[in-house]
């Protein structure tokens, strides 16, 4: 919930809308199961980077949701979005939260798991 002085609020008074992250490419082709494992490892360790667990939980929910729901999640959690793609956010106490691209979108070189 950004106030007029918050970095989440633009000059015209509207809240910064989140958007899909830019395309990215993993250093080598990666399967969906490998991507899921990377994501799970990140979210399991994220609270150890600092910040509050409830904000990390809200960011995870937003990262896994459609854009309109993600916007509602970050707004209701009081997350201040610095980068519209959610890669850099802050909580109301000023703690910084950095999200890697691989938790926000799929790589361009995602390959099918072999059966």
Describe the structure.
Residues 16-113 form the DC-UbP/UBTD2 N-terminal domain. Residues 1-31 are annotated as: Disordered. Pfam families: UBD. Residues 1-11 have a biased composition (Polar residues). It comes from Cucumis sativus. Mean pLDDT is 87; it is low at 1-14. The strands form two sheets. The protein has a three-stranded antiparallel beta sheet, with no helix packed on it. It has a two-stranded parallel ribbon with strand order 1-5. With 115 residues, the chain is of the alpha+beta class. The chain is globular. It has four helices and five strands; from the N terminus they run βαααβββαβ. 35% of the residues lie in helices and 10% in strands. A hairpin with a 6-residue loop joins β2 (80-81) and β3. The protein has helices at residues 32-45, 53-63, 67-77, 101-104; strands spanning 30-31, 80-81, 88-90, 96-98, 110-111. α2 runs antiparallel to α3. The protein has a domain at 34-108: Bacteriocin As-48, Chain A, CATH 1.20.225.20.
- What percent of residues adopt helix (DSSP H or I)? 25-40%
| Major sheet attributes | 3 strands, antiparallel
String of helices and strands: EHHHEEEHE
Count the helices. How many?
Answer: 4
Mean pLDDT: 87
Radius of gyration, whole Å: 15 Å
Number of strands: 5
User: Which oligomeric form is depicted?
Assistant: single chain
What structural class do helix, strand and pairing data support? Answer: alpha+beta
Taking pLDDT < 50 over at least 5 consecutive residues as the criterion, the unreliable ranges are 1-14
């Amino acid at each position: 919930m950004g106030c007029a002085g918050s970095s989440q609020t633009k000059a015209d008074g509207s809240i910064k809308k989140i958007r899909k992250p830019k395309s990215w490419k993993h250093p080598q082709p990666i399967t969906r199961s490998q991507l899921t494992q990377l994501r799970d490892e990140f979210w399991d360790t994220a609270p150890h980077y600092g910040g509050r667990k409830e904000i990390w939980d809200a960011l995870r929910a937003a990262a896994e949701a459609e854009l309109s729901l993600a916007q509602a999640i970050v707004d209701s959690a009081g997350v201040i979005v610095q980068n519209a793609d959610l890669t850099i956010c802050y909580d109301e106490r000023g703690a910084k939260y950095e999200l890697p691209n691989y938790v926000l979108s799929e790589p361009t070189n995602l390959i099918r798991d072999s059966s």
